[in-house]
Amino acid sequence: MSSSPTENLFTIESVKALVKDYPDFPKDGILFKDIFPIFQNHRALDCLLNHMADEAITFSKKLNGSKIDAVVGLDARGFLFGPTLALKLEAKFVPIRKRGKLPGILVSASYEKEYGVDIVEIQADSINQGDNVLIVDDLLATGGTCRAAEDLIKKLGANVVLNQFVIELCELNGRDILEAPIHSVIKY
């Protein structure tokens, strides 16, 4: 049985409809947005990744006309989107991880969390001076992790051209602390 082309098309609105809410997870008072149902539908995932890649290309061309050299994924869910976006953008993929998870010579940055300070790291030779970088993660909440990632990339002499998120929790104002432009696919 074949289906018509329109049956196979997903829109960002239909992708958004797959996100599930879990109240009081992982603790009371939190409304958790579960993105994993998107991964259970290959058409939805394809729609999301194509949308993100198209937005990154369009933005990069408008900004300075050059391509994105590196896609940086933030630990850990940025790793779900980053490698595929890097392939689509013909760029390298570079992870930024929590302290103690990467080998080699590292550059680190700290950021404030609700209950203390956390540290993220990047391998010092993973990004070249002058590279145009796309940072990707699943969620923009308070912005602390992404801001630390921007600092790491600047320390390496590269340029963050865009911060990209699947979901943004607008009421937490995370975008206010970020320096580079932001593209969020789904906003709550």
Automatic annotation (TrEMBL):
CDD domains per UniProt: PRTases_typeI (cd06223)
Q: Where would you find this protein in the cell?
A: Cytoplasm
Q: Which GO terms describe its molecular function?
A: adenine binding; adenine phosphoribosyltransferase activity; AMP binding
Q: Which Pfam families match?
A: Pribosyltran
Return the PANTHER family for the record.
ADENINE PHOSPHORIBOSYLTRANSFERASE (PTHR32315)
Family stated for the protein in its record: Belongs to the purine/pyrimidine phosphoribosyltransferase family.
The protein depicted here goes by the name: adenine phosphoribosyltransferase
